[in-house]
Specification:
The protein is an alpha/beta fold. It has three domains: 166 residues, 2-Layer Sandwich (Nucleotidyltransferase, domain 5), CATH 3.30.420.40; 79 residues, 2-Layer Sandwich (Dna Ligase, domain 1), CATH 3.30.1490; 163 residues, Nucleotidyltransferase, domain 5, CATH 3.30.420. Helix content is 32%, strand content 30%. It has eleven helices and 20 strands. Strand 14 and strand 15 form a beta hairpin. It starts with a strand and ends in a 5-residue tail after the last helix. The structure holds adenosine-5'-triphosphate (ATP) and magnesium ion. Adenosine-5'-triphosphate binds next to helix 6 and helix 7. The site of magnesium ion (MG) has 6 residues, from loops.
């Protein structure tokens, strides 16, 4: 949809705890957030849709709220996808170039090489979601970001391909369509979040992005500017809340509140400008589950329930990296934590201690965002903002019309239109 010289783009992040919508007016150099909608969702478990009707309803409500705020009606959205069915793998493709000496490499040549990289046979229940180039090689020269205009005999490409289960992909399409919207594109949550929170320098040196939400942790690793690895671990903040419920025998809403308020407090230290540390022996009140009794427990007791869960998550992440043979030198730029659980007090410190790397909390970067930036400036909004940023980067904002057309951007959009949609 076009408005003025900008395009109106809407994105819906279908998360385990919430469905969140952002409507933005996008111009070449800015994303003007004009509407935001947020609805709790219980139709998704560990990133995967388990209840179509509930998720459809949550999408409707979330989009309507954003529409009301933006004072526009939308008919097309970008949607997010996650879940442990997501997988990623490397592919390699090559194509012979014209043997005319001065003939330059064209977009067509790039596409042909990429086609080769994606020609892996997938099992019948899987579909390709994304393909991103890692490097191009022209004859013997490697690490080429864009070979356009170069000359050579052979063009090769290493690419990273992300696939998902057809059932899960279809369910995302289904809930968006049943809610009354056309799904223009579906983007992996971890990839979207990376787009919103990572700095180009981090991606260049090597960085590990962890979007720790309510039910999943999306891992995305970037090295030398390109995506090298993605995985989804079905563990998130809900597990921490459940442990507090069980450990303190308190209702879920209280556990959630205590978790958010205190997190992993430590004994008071001299330097504590934020005042987030607990005084030794500080007591907090904990209402009992199912009775009106209120017990007093030491604030540090909370840490006893939270810390092992976070340590377990760190172990899972390390195991995934190890399985793939990823060396620490590939994320020498450290770890960026985002998603709602990145706000857990003390989580950055624990990651730093356990993994011995630079750790920062990431939220949508301000650079390009104007309008209601304050509303979307926290880590829970990383995915939904990233959906828009990723889409613009791949396709250009003018192509968001709901029915195709407009300018075509990256190689992947070409492949999708010309290859995958025809299979
Ligand atoms: N201040 C806080 N401290 C600790 N945890 C928090 C805080 N704020 C939010 N959370 C937790 O963040 C989680 C929700 O994060 P988010 O909105 O990123 O998840 P989601 O996108 O719905 O789920 P997912 O991405 O896993 O499908 C909840 O478990 C919530 O308890
Ligand atoms: Mg999320």
């Amino acid at each position: 949809m076009q408005q003025g010289d900008g395009s109106i783009i809407a994105a819906v992040d279908i998360g385990t705890t919430k469905v969140c919508t952002v409507i933005a007016e996008v111009r070449d150099d800015e994303i003007n957030v004009v509407g935001v909608g947020w609805t709790e969702n219980s139709g998704v478990s560990k990133g995967t849709i388990i209840n179509i009707a509930e998720t459809t309803e949550a999408i409707k409500k979330s989009v309507e709220k954003a529409e009301e705020m933006a004072k526009v009606r939308i008919d097309t959205v970008l949607a997010s996808i996650s879940g442990k069915h997501i997988n990623g793998m490397k592919g390699h493709g090559e194509t012979a170039l014209s043997n005319q000496r001065q003939k330059e490499i064209t977009e067509e040549d790039k596409h042909r090489a990429m086609e080769g990289a994606t020609s892996v046979r997938l099992s019948h229940d899987r579909e390709t979601l994304h393909v991103v180039p890692i490097q191009y090689i022209v004859d013997t020269q490697d690490e080429i970001e864009d070979p356009l205009g170069m000359t050579g005999m052979k063009l090769e490409v290493d690419a990273y391909m992300i696939t998902g289960s057809i059932t899960s992909i279809d369910n995302v399409k289904k809930v968006v369509e049943r809610a009354g919207y056309h799904c223009e594109d579906m983007i992996l949550q971890g990839l979207a979040s990376s787009q919103a929170v990572l700095y180009p320098d981090e991606k260049d040196v090597g960085v590990l992005l962890l979007d720790i939400g309510g039910g999943t942790t999306d891992i995305a690793l970037f090295y030398r500017k390109s995506l090298r690895f993605v995985r989804v671990i079905p563990v998130g903040g809900q597990f921490i809340t459940n442990d507090i419920v069980q450990g303190l025998q308190t209702p879920k809403y209280v556990a959630e509140e205590l978790k958010k308020k205190y997190g992993m407090s430590e004994a008071a230290q001299a330097a504590d400008p934020a005042g987030e540390s607990a005084a030794p022996g500080e007591m907090i009140e904990v209402p009992d589950m199912g009775s009106s009794k209120v017990e007093k427990v030491e604030r540090s007791t909370l840490t006893k329930f939270i810390k092992p869960r976070v340590q377990e998550l760190i172990k899972f992440v390390e195991e995934e990296l190890k399985k793939e043979g990823i060396d620490r030198s590939m994320y020498a730029g450290g770890i960026v934590l985002t998603g709602g659980t990145a706000q857990l007090k003390g989580i950055d410190r624990l990651f730093k201690e356990e993994m011995n790397l630079r750790v920062r909390i990431g939220a949508p970067l301000k650079e390009k965002i104007v309008g209601l930036y304050d509303i979307v400036s926290t880590p829970e909004y990383a995915t939904v903002i990233g959906l828009i940023e990723h889409y613009i980067r791949e396709h250009g904002h003018e192509s968001f019309t709901g029915g195709g057309g407009g300018s075509m951007g990256g190689v992947w959009s070409w492949l999708k239109k010309n290859i995958f949609d025809k299979i």
